[in-house]
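Mods, move this if it's the wrong board.
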Amino acid sequence: MERQHLEAREMTKQNSTLPASTMTRDGFTMIEVMIAVVLLAGVVLAMGMSTTVLGRNMRSSDIRNRAQSVADMQIGRARAWPTYSTLSQLSAAKFNGSADGLTSATTVSVDSSAGKNLTTVTVTVTSVQSGALASPIVRSVSIAP
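Not the wrong board. Structure tokens:
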């Protein structure tokens, strides 16, 4: 009996005509594939742009770190200067120059007003390339005998 029921069911399937909307389909339509490609392209483009921005920020950070290092080294030289009376020579020293696209300038000012004898050393580091440093790096130290 069950066999007859299965055969009848099979014959009904073969003879029936189903509307196109209820037919099963395999795969994706062309519009679905196009939408997927457009979405994938958008994601890849966004990743590329963020990588570019990240690289630019890393270069800017590297330049700023090098400039701070140059300024700190020059301040260290001022602190370690052997003779207080010749500290003004620090501004004309040969290590004030440009290196790796950075230019450093050291100014030494002496304040002897009101009986004080205070020397202030200021180091300013700028970039040779325009826009590499948003603002110059400035370090100062006051030294008394």
